[in-house]
Amino acid sequence: MKATYYGQSCVEFDFDGAKVLLDPFVTYNPLAKAIDVNAIKPDYIFLSHGHQDHVADMATIQKNSDATVLAIVETAAWVRRQGVPDDKVIEFNLGGTIQLPFGTVKMVYAAHTNSTPDGQYGGFPVGFVFNVQGKKIYFAGDTALTMEMKLLADLKLDWAFLPIGGYYTMDVDDAIKAAEFINCSRVVGIHYDSFPPIQIDKQKALDKFQNEDISLSLPKIGETITL
């Protein structure tokens, strides 16, 4: 299993050949100019919520790849309004678990806001827990630190993708607490550096995580890591 980081919160998992893209935002990210969005061709696209910096390239990538798009009910309605066919949209809701060819995905709570680019209500923001061949990966989406994360502690998560940029989401210090809440010692940072309000001191972040015996990975944009 591998994960490729495309900047902001855009990550593509390769689950032994099944390509799963989360929160596609590449074209408008000033740090991701080297990434060719037309070369990204996933089988599935998951949206944690409808804010522009998580969905801007959804329609382009879906059209190029014929991917199935998965999101909470109200965000899924926006996906359909972008011209994505009904048979390529899967809507589900908080607490729901779906079975896909590569494994299962559970939709979990996130503490944030959610509207779609056309100004409509987007439902709740969410995170996802992927269970693939016995490995469990938590993608938190945009979230503040929340006590609900403690509900994930018993899942024995292998990896957690957590926002660390602050301002709109958790910052580094809260992400460390989140890692402790969910009982996960391997974290990949997301949602940082793309814009001035969320720029971080990466070395300071790495040091803070290390001091708490938690591994923090900050892959470069376009870099692939093994899970």
TrEMBL record:
The keyword Transcription regulation does not apply. Keywords: Hydrolase. Gene3D superfamilies: Ribonuclease Z/Hydroxyacylglutathione hydrolase-like (3.60.15.10). Transmembrane segments: none annotated. GO terms for molecular function: hydrolase activity. Residues 7-191 form the Metallo-beta-lactamase domain. It holds the Pfam family Lactamase_B_2. The keyword Ligase does not apply. This is Metal-dependent hydrolase. It comes from Sphingobacterium puteale.
